[in-house]
Amino acid sequence: FPLLLQEVVSEESEEESNGVNLMEFSDEILLHILSYVPCTDLVLNVRRTCRKLATLCLDKSLTHTVLLQKDYKVNKDKVKQLMRDIGKEIYQLNMAGCYWLPSSTIDHVTRCKNLVKLNLSGCHITSLRLSKMLSTLQHLRSLAIDVNPGFDASQLSSECKATLSRVSELKQTLYTPSYGVVPCCTSLEKLLLYFEILDRSREGFMLSGQLMVGESNVPHYQNLRVFYARLAPGYVNQEVVRLYLAVLSDRTPENLHAFLISAPGSFAETGATKNLLDSMARNVCLDALQLPKAWINGSGLLQHLKFNNPFYFSFSRCTLSGGHLIQRVINGGKDLKSLTSLNLSGCVHCLAPESLFRKAEDDIDSSILESLVASCCNLRHLNLSAAHHHSSESIGNHLCQLLSRLKHLLSLALPVCSITDVAANAEKPPTASNLVPQTFGRKVRIGVQTYPRNLGDQANQKIESSVFWALMGSLRFLETLEIIGSSFSSAMPRNEPAIRNSLPPCARAQSVGDSEVAAISQLTYLQSLTLAQLPNILTGSGLVSVGLQCQHLRTLSLANLGMMGKVVYMSALVDMLKHCKCLRDLRLEQPYFCAGAQFFQALSHCSSLQRLCIVSRSGTLQSDAVMSFMANCLEVIMCHMFMGESLTVCKNLQQSIVRSFQAERPALNVVIFPLLHEDLTEVIRDVPMRHLDEITLFKSRVAEEPPNLWW
To answer: What biological process terms from GO does the record include (predicted)?
Structure first.
């Protein structure tokens, strides 16, 4: 875009017989256009093209907020020049995830004397550098940082602590047991904590959750309105978060309106946490709630908590029944128009009246979902994944038919078995793919039709009368869609060896395949699509429809589609990728995937691609094809491949990519490693958190956090 502007300006003096010169537009229109250009390009390139742009590029509307968090081409010199030119004009600076910048880059932030909001999550910064920087930022009110091993709060100067005392919003990612800067922030209103502490050191020693000497200062929570904690797996994270919660249990802030704790696995309730919850039930009125499953299961907590105008609820992995959901949360059909985000992922009984004698695969009670939809009519984000939500054969009461009433939905996550058209499925004879066992190993070759090559043929094969087709047609503004098998688990979990076996798909999901994927092509504004464990993918023809029709698609994640012993959709995927001009992130997880010349040639058509992740047990790759792809796709800065190749092949390819492209791509992050190697977890721990959390690890992301939790 900057080059285009320069070309336009260079031709400004020439007479134009067709069209209008861009420079003839009003300042308001030009400012709107320039708002889509990265700030570094505006200040360092575009403003040097002509006098008019020199003035416009320094307009306050463009320099007030500087976002560098995904500007992968920015380097230390560009940041230095940017701060020198417009540092005093910057009020909000986001450098989150700029892991490639050396820690000395942070020194230049001191030029931004008027900063109010600063995000340095994922940046390398020491205690001394943090102290020096914060000492000069007297207007700072919002801060995001990482706390790494070696952090020492005693090195913070009195001027730095004075700045921290005025900070009202703090986001802190912990890689070591510590309070970080929390005790210095005496005016906190919003506290976000991300616990990423590993249980073992690199040397193999067990770590303790006890805080370091000198870390006994008490946090100040008296003004707290929002408390959010997200824990990575591990007992140390649980020990440390309990220390943060201990102060809350003594005295609950009266203005607290959002209390959220996201903890995987088992996080047991203690006497202190029980006291905290009892205090909250007596003294506060909440707008957002998320608790570990053990704190909700079997307790009457929800019956006693008070809610004002709630905008976010997450009961992920709880055994909450639909009866309790309606009675205790929705108050038997209370108007909850304020609720915009609801996460019921893994709540296997949330659409059933009770859970005591119910099997997870039993049909849902449509009246519960109907009450939910009627009460929460303004939902924008809904997650029903990781559960068996089987609709009965009652006409008009299918889950898809009820969800079609939620006209404001922007993101939706559903289990595969929930989109099955029950009546149509009952009449349909079992297909060849149904008869093929969904396990690893060599498969008996079966006849597979070639997918249709033109839209006319595809249209003839679409089941336009299906309930899922109708649902997709009614949610025209949906931006994020996840269809994930209820028994799907990724082959690459967080802190454990790769999973060698996977559970078979739900029997009700056996008929879900190409026609359902084709129905997704109706979502014109779709930006992110996740498909996992769709058993009846025979050719992948629906993927071609999605590629042609969903031109705004930026993120695509495909996992375990069709039979497991062969990638039956490769030809369709190759055709699809040729149309994905806006695609930035691609994640593929499929056994026996061949990442060869055909695949990478097609992927080279994705000119906007930035991140690629392939996870494949027994998968193969062609090194020459990978190198050619990296040379052709200049925007790619992340290449993660966990395949079945030998360690030698993987290391040689990784070194070749780094050696060839690191200099011109400062943010380049390459990890190529055998999926089943015993050292996989050690390799994973070195991946930048931005990539690990956003693409490398598979998870459902719909309603994972409250909307606009952080800027």
So the answer is: SCF-dependent proteasomal ubiquitin-dependent protein catabolic process
Non-local (6+) Cβ contacts of 464 within 8 A are none
What residue ranges in 215-319 does DSSP mark as E strands?
226-231, 258-262, 285-290, 306-314
Please, which residues have CB within 8 angstroms of residue 385's CB and are 6 or more apart in sequence?
345, 346, 413, 414, 415, 482, 484, 486, 700, 702
pTM of the model: 0.92
Domain range summary for the chain, segments of one domain joined by +: 24-142+159-169, 597-710
CA distance 243 to 240: 5
Q: How far apart are CA 241 and CA 256, in angstroms?
A: 18
The tens digit of pLDDT for each residue in 330-354 reads 775 567 899 999 999 999 999 998 8
- b/e string for 341-369 if b means 16 or more Cβ within 10 A? bbbbbbbbbbbbbebeebeeeebbbbebb
Q: Which two tokens stand for residue 371?
A: 């009450």
Residue in 402, 420, 394, 613 with CA at minimum distance from that of residue 505: 420
Using the predicted structure, report yes or no on whether residue 208 has a pLDDT greater than 90.
no
Question: Can you tell me the distance from the alpha carbon of 54 to that of 58, in angstroms, rounded to the nearest whole number?
Answer: 7
Which has the closest alpha carbon to 145: 93, 212, 205, 77? 93
In 3D space, the residue among 110, 63, 70 whose CA is nearest the CA of residue 91 turns out to be: 63
Q: How far is CA 513 from CA 412, 483, 538, 566, 590, in A?
A: 19, 11, 7, 16, 16
CA atoms within 13 A on the CB side of 135: 12
pLDDT tens digit string along 141-192?
Answer: 999 999 999 999 999 999 999 999 999 999 999 999 999 999 999 999 999 9
Q: Are 695 and 665 in contact (CB under 8 A)?
A: no
The count of C-alpha atoms lying within 13 angstroms of the C-alpha of 98, restricted to the half-sphere facing its C-beta, is: 26
* Token pair in block for residue 572: 């369709």
